[in-house]
Design a protein that fits this description.
- The structure holds two protein chains of two kinds.
- Chain A is mainly alpha-helical.
- Chain A has two domains: about 10-155, Helix Hairpins (Orthogonal Bundle), CATH 1.10.287.370; about 170-375, no CATH class.
- Chain A is about 60% helix and about 10% strand.
- Chain A has helices spanning about 15, 20-60, 100-145, 160-170, 180-205, 210-215, 225-230, 245-255, 260-275, 275-295, 295-310, 330-340, 345-360, 365-375, and strands spanning about 10, 65-70, 75-80, 90-95, 95-100, 150-155.
- The longest helix of chain A has about 45 residues, at about 100-145.
- Chain A is elongated.
- In chain A, about 25% of the residues are buried.
- Chain B is mainly α.
- Chain B has one domain (about 1-120): Helix Hairpins.
- Chain B has helices at about 1-50, 70-125, and strands at about 60, 65-70.
- In chain B, strand 1 and strand 2 form a beta hairpin.
- The longest helix of chain B is centred in the last third of the chain and has 56 residues, at about 70-125.
- Chain B is rod-shaped, with a radius of gyration of 26 Å.
- Classes of the chains: A mainly alpha, B mainly alpha.
- The interface of A and B includes residues 93, 95 and 96 of A.
C-alpha cells in the first residue's frame, strides 16, 4: 500500500549478536554446568560416605571387640582385634582431633551432613540457573541463525489515517462472488469497527447507488433482471430472501398493471427509483464529506477490491461514496435493479421520466416505495 | 623507521607488564580461594570445639604425631587462625583492587600504543 511512514526499526538478531559469540557463550555456560555437576557429584559422594560412616559408628559399639584383618602396608593384611569400640578420634579439620564416643561422633557427622545437604541444594539451584541460561543462549542463537528480526515500534494511538491505510491491506483479496465477498468483508469489517459500520449503515442508506454501479459489473444478473427472466428464481440469490419477497410481488403487480411490455416496465421502474435520487443527492454530497472518515474502512476496502480486479488504482476523487454492506441488503438490492439500467444519458432523461411519474398519482404507493421513502 | 621500532618496543614492554599484572591477579584469586576454603574449615572446627565438653580430649596433628592439647588452648588457636585468615583475605582484597587498577591503566596504554602504531602504518601506506 506504499506506506512510506517509518514507524519502527527492524534489526536482524544476527546483527546484534554474532553466531560465534553465541557459540562461545554457550560453550562457557556448558563448561560451567559441567563443573557444577562434578562438584555436585563429589558432594554427593561425601554425603554417601558420611552416611556409611554413621551406620558403622552406630553398630560398632555393639560389641566390645572385633576380630579384623588389619591392613599392613599396601598389599598385606594381618589378623588383629579391634578394641575400645566406643572411642573415636574425630578429625574436626585443620589438624584438630577430638576424642569422642560413638554417639557424640554421630552427632558431629550429622551436623556435617546438614552442611553437605545445604551445599548440595545450593549447587543444584546453581545448575538449574546455568541450564536456564544455556537454553536461553541456545534459543537466541537459534533465532539469530533462523533470521529472526527484532522489531521495535513506538506505540502511538491508532489514528483514523493509519486505520484507513491498513484496512485495505487486510481486505485486499480478489473478489470472485460478490455475495460471499460481501459476507466475508462484513464479518471482517464488523470485527474491526463494528460501531463505525453500524453508524455508516444507518447514514449511508441512500448513497449506495454509485457503489452498486461498480458492483454490478461482477453480478451476472441483478435481482430485478432475474425477476423478469424467471419469476420462480426468487430467493436463489442470498439477497433476495424472506422479507424482500413481498417487494418482489409488488414489482410483479406493478408490472402487470403496466400496459406495455416488461422492458418498458423496467424502464419505468428505473425512472421511479431515479426520481427519488434528487432529494437525496444534496445530502449525499454532504454525507460524502462527513463519511470520509467514518465509513473509510468500507470505502477503501471496496475500492481496493475494484483495484485488485481491474489492476488499476482510483484516485481520491474517484473514491466511491460510503457503502453499507450486509446491514442494509434491502437497499442494496432495491437499487441494484435500477443501477444497471442506467446509461450515460440517464441523467438527462431523468427529469422527463420524473414528470411521467407525476402523471400517475392515482396508483397506490407501493410498499417498496414506502420503504424507500422511509429509509432514505 | 626509528619511531616505529620504538613504538613497537614500547608496546612489547607494556604488553609484558600487562601480562605480569594479569598473572598476579590470577595468583591472587587462587590464594584467596584457598584462604576462603580454610576459613570455612576453621569456622566448622570452631563450632565443633564450642560444642565439646570442657573435659573432652583434643589433639592436634603436628607432622606425624598427635599432640594432646587443652580445649581452651585449641579454641584460642582456632580463633586466632580465623582472625589471621580474615585479615589476610582483606589484605588480598586491597591488593586485588590495586592490581586491577594497574591492569586497567596498562590496558589503556597498550591500546593507545596500538592505535598510534596503526595510525603510523596507515600514514605510511598513504605516503
Amino acid at each position: 500500500m506504499g506506506d512510506d511512514r517509518v514507524e519502527g526499526t527492524v534489526t536482524p538478531l544476527a546483527e546484534t549478536l554474532s553466531e560465534a559469540d553465541a557459540a562461545v557463550v554457550a560453550r562457557r555456560v556448558a563448561e560451567a554446568i559441567q563443573a557444577q555437576r562434578q562438584q555436585l557429584q563429589t558432594l554427593q559422594g561425601y554425603h554417601d560416605d558420611n552416611r556409611a560412616l554413621c551406620n558403622v559408628l552406630v553398630q560398632l559399639p555393639d560389641l566390645v571387640s572385633y576380630d579384623i584383618m588389619v591392613p599392613f602396608g599396601k598389599a598385606a593384611f594381618m589378623p588383629g582385634r579391634l578394641i575400645h569400640t566406643n572411642e573415636f578420634l574425630v578429625l574436626l579439620g585443620e589438624g584438630y582431633y577430638a576424642e569422642r564416643s560413638a554417639k557424640q561422633a554421630v552427632e558431629i557427622l550429622e551436623r556435617r551432613s546438614e552442611f553437605l545437604d545445604s551445599k548440595i541444594n545450593a549447587t543444584k539451584v546453581h545448575i538449574g540457573d546455568l541450564e536456564a541460561e544455556a537454553t536461553f543462549v541456545k534459543n537466541i542463537a537459534d533465532e539469530a541463525a533462523a533470521g529472526v528480526v527484532e522489531i521495535k515500534e513506538e506505540y502511538t494511538e491508532p489514528t483514523e489515517f493509519s486505520f484507513q491505510r491498513t484496512s485495505p491491506v487486510e481486505d485486499a483479496t480478489p473478489v470472485d462472488g460478490k455475495v460471499s465477498a460481501d459476507a466475508e468483508d462484513a464479518k471482517i469489517m464488523a470485527r474491526i469497527a463494528e460501531l463505525e459500520l453500524a453508524e455508516a449503515a444507518a447514514e449511508d442508506d441512500g448513497t449506495g447507488s454509485d457503489d452498486d454501479n461498480d458492483a454490478e459489473v461482477y453480478r451476472p444478473f441483478t435481482p430485478f433482471q432475474r425477476l423478469l427472466l424467471d419469476e420462480d428464481e426468487e430467493g436463489e440469490d442470498e439477497e433476495e430472501e424472506e422479507d424482500d419477497d413481498d417487494e418482489h410481488e409488488d414489482f410483479l403487480q406493478r408490472l402487470a398493471q403496466l400496459p406495455s411490455s416488461s422492458s418498458k416496465g423496467r424502464a419505468h421502474f428505473t425512472s421511479e427509483l431515479y426520481q427519488q435520487q434528487p432529494n437525496r443527492v444534496p445530502s449525499e454530497e454532504h454525507e460524502k464529506g462527513a463519511h470520509e472518515i467514518h465509513a473509510a474502512p468500507h470505502r477503501v476496502r471496496f475500492e481496493d477490491e475494484l483495484n485488485v480486479e481491474r489492476g488499476a488504482s482510483l484516485s481520491a476523487q474517484d473514491r466511491l461514496p460510503p457503502r453499507s454492506h450486509s446491514p442494509s441488503t434491502v437497499h442494496l438490492q432495491a437499487f441494484s435493479g435500477t443501477v444497471l439500467e442506467r446509461n450515460p444519458g440517464n441523467l438527462s432523461s431523468n427529469q422527463s421520466v420524473a414528470q411521467e411519474e407525476e402523471n400517475r398519482p392515482t396508483r397506490p404507493v407501493s410498499k417498496f416505495k414506502l420503504r424507500k421513502g422511509k429509509d432514505s | 623507521m626509528a619511531s616505529m621500532k620504538e613504538l613497537q618496543q614500547q608496546l612489547e614492554a607494556k604488553a609484558a607488564r600487562l601480562a605480569a599484572i594479569q598473572k598476579d591477579i590470577g595468583k591472587n584469586h587462587q590464594v584467596r580461594r584457598q584462604y576462603t576454603v580454610q576459613h570455612g574449615e576453621n569456622e566448622m572446627v570452631q563450632k565443633e570445639l564450642e560444642l565439646l565438653e570442657e573435659d573432652a580430649n583434643v589433639f592436634k596433628l603436628i607432622g606425624p604425631v598427635l599432640v594432646k592439647q587443652d580445649l581452651a588452648e585449641a579454641k584460642a588457636n582456632v580463633n586466632k587462625r580465623i582472625e589471621y585468615i580474615l585479615a589476610e583475605l582483606r589484605r588480598m582484597e586491597g591488593t586485588l583492587k590495586t592490581l586491577e587498577e594497574q591492569q586497567r591503566n596498562s590496558q589503556e596504554e597498550v591500546m593507545k600504543l596500538q592505535q598510534r602504531i596503526q595510525l603510523a602504518q596507515t600514514g605510511k601506506a598513504k605516503s
